[in-house]
Design brief:
globular; 2 domains; single chain; RmlC-like_jellyroll; six-stranded antiparallel β-sheet; Jelly Rolls
Length: about 325
């Protein structure tokens, strides 16, 4: 019986050459390390201004309707080389707008989604699994994965919000499915705001007012929204920073997206410093030093992959100098 081609090499270079056509890569011949001492990411700190997004959406409202675009939105694409979609490694977010009289077609998909309402008048709503939920500024609305959902505006002015989805996580794991409602729009079976898929701002504001200051000195007052049963991959919280707040610096393996509801201040994220205002969004990639300061009392909505990392026992956080 002839010798096996892998049993005859007299040196490692020859062995490596014969392993390659068989789709083997020897551990002693890695192209690059597969393990490293601490987290590293290509995603960078970034900041998007609401005044820019609103101007772009208003122009898009003149140029494109929901027949041409299933959703009229502006994705916040992290500006690292080669990225064309994701906001952070596991998350994506987008500003969205719907005009008076419009309806966005109903569909469902594997990714979990939610929206934070920025500016709407009476008549803007979402329909999730047959429940019409009318939107109010500051609301958090959940769309669990594979739940039917669409939006509409029966009012007299545009509605604006920020969408958050775990689409990049689904891209990584690959269980992506999408289905469109057969008749385009799911008819509401009920109209309610007493629903587990909505966290009304009035309720969240009361909880914030009653919350004790966070003992870590990082968050001011913080309220966690109990969304885990519906959205198991994302953690949601609201922070209230008093005027003059100077937060302690820290870092976490969790990727964080921060949307400003009210107030103004600065965020130091890694080597970048951002001046934020109402409606702005900024991101804190994994393991970047992060510090908040507020000039005026501020409320911040935070979406992160902390829930997923905690389930997988990956989560780590620590104070930094």
């Amino acid at each position: 019986m002839p010798d096996h081609p892998l049993s005859t090499p007299a040196d490692l270079d020859t062995l490596n050459e014969r392993l390659a056509p068989l789709s083997f890569r020897a551990g002693w011949n890695k192209a690059e390390p597969s393990l490293w001492a601490e987290p590293r990411t290509r995603f960078v700190p970034a900041h998007w201004r609401w005044q820019d997004a609103r101007a772009g959406l208003d122009t898009a409202g003149r140029l494109i309707d929901t027949e041409l675009a299933e959703r009229r939105n502006l994705f916040m694409v992290n500006p690292h080389p080669g990225n064309h979609y994701a906001t952070l490694r596991t998350l994506v977010c987008a500003y969205q707008m719907i005009l008076p009289g419009e309806r966005a077609r109903s569909h469902r998909h594997s990714p979990h989604a939610l929206r934070f309402v920025l500016d709407v008048g009476a008549g803007s709503y979402t329909v999730v699994d047959g429940a019409r939920i009318d939107m109010q500024p500051g609301d958090v609305l959940l769309t669990p994965g594979w739940g039917w959902h669409g939006h509409g505006n029966d009012g007299d002015r545009p509605g604006y919000w920020v969408d958050f989805l775990d689409v990049p996580t689904v891209h990584l794991l690959e269980p992506m499915f999408l289905e469109h409602w057969p008749a385009q729009y799911q008819a509401p079976e009920q109209t309610t705001r007493a629903h587990p898929y909505v966290f009304p701002w009035a309720d969240t504001e009361r909880l914030l007012a009653a919350a004790a200051p966070d003992p870590s000195g990082r968050h001011g007052r913080r309220v966690r929204l109990d969304s885990d049963a519906a959205i198991p991959t994302m953690a949601l919280s609201m922070q209230r920073l008093p005027a003059g707040f100077a937060g302690r610096a820290w870092r976490t393996t969790a990727n964080q997206i921060v949307c400003v509801k009210s107030g103004s201040g600065t965020a130091q994220v890694g080597e970048r410093s951002f001046e934020w205002q109402p409606g702005d969004v900024f991101v804190v990639p994994s393991w970047h030093r992060y510090q908040l300061n507020a000039r005026a009392e501020a409320d911040l909505f935070v979406v992160s992959d902390e829930a997923l990392q905690r389930k997988l026992h990956y989560l780590r956080e620590e104070p930094t100098p």
